[in-house]
Amino acid sequence: MKELWLRKGEDRRLRAGHLWVFGNEVDVSKSPLNAFTPGEEALVRDARGQALGCAFVNPHSLICARIYSRKAGQALDGALLRERLETALALRERCFDAPYYRLCHGEGDVLPGLVVDRFGDHLTVQIGTAGMDARKEQLREVLRSLLSPASILWDNDLASRSLEGLARDNDLEGDVPEELDVPENGCRFLAPCRTGQKTGWFYDQRRNRAEAARYANGVQVLDIFSYAGGFGGTAARAGASSVTFIDASQTAVDYAVRNAARNAPRLADADAVKGLCGDAFACMEQLYEEGRRFGLVCLDPPAFIKRRKDAEQGKAAYRKANALAVRLLEPGGVFVSCSCSHHLPAETLRGLVALAAAKNHRQGRILYAGGQPEDHPVHCAMPETAYLKCFIAHMS
Ligand code: SAH
Question: In this structure, what is the dihedral angle of CA atoms 177, 178, 183, 187, given to the nearest 10 degrees?
Fold first, then answer.
């Protein structure tokens, strides 16, 4: 195995358990990065020569190496992939009684860049690193022997793949369904699998959706940035008197409306499920002008901050969205505010909720502060693996 030498003092983070090596931390005089092919294994050594673990290298990426094992000389082969996935599977089986979950959450499961979602017999796999991409065949074998899936959708349409210099074409294996049928919190949700700009289901909001639905009984619910209606659909089943969805994608809105009707037929019969396709900011303005007010408003925007340099601009978008959403609450309404941007700290989001309350002359009190569920584990030495925040606040 080749060696990757770090510069003096650059071993601290790795010794504390972190898995990433950045290009500027490498002693390129001892181990030039361009001597590595993308995905190649290397033994990482500190400046004094002590071994820190094994990593796969990508000379074309800012994160030039990712540790996959602390054991010197350990190859990232089928046996190790199997061991890691078995560990991940055992954790999920301990937490969930049905095979619907994120089976592997990249670094959180010590498989850098590998995300696997399990929908019963069907798997969706996202590979975001050259190291994992180079081991796709071993991975296929391990997934087959571990789970015997009816289909695997290799979903390669990821922005992170471009950063790693990887192609972005999808690859379908077996009988990939058009639609997924996902049980969650006593509901059932249909979601597109092969079509649309989005595929699959966002399992990460499972617990937050259940928490939000506790405040749905007897009130009108607004689900903003709804995708297939996870929040509103759960609220519908929990006794909402009406549900309105907003999303920029017509496919998403159609699924959301169908899902709410499916989980609460009484609402469909009463014509109390509505979908608005359009820009969420404009739709929120419009609802306000029409005088619509809601007892429960769920706001779950896409990641407005993808890279650190977008932080200020993205924060402004969160600030505006939160203010517009709170304006639509009736007195005593409940507000659910989420962010999936790693670069927006929880404390900042709490501040934006407070600001939205103040701007609208409301008193807010936080009832719940949530994050990622167990199938999206946060690696305890890697704050980068924590991304999801959810506050639920009562506003009088
Ligand atoms: N709340 C959803 C997940 C939301 S994902 C759930 O629980 O599953 C973010 C959604 O925002 C996507 O469906 C995307 O189509 C939508 N979106 C992105 N930009 C938008 C905009 N400007 N206005 C409305 N919807 C938008």
Answer: -160
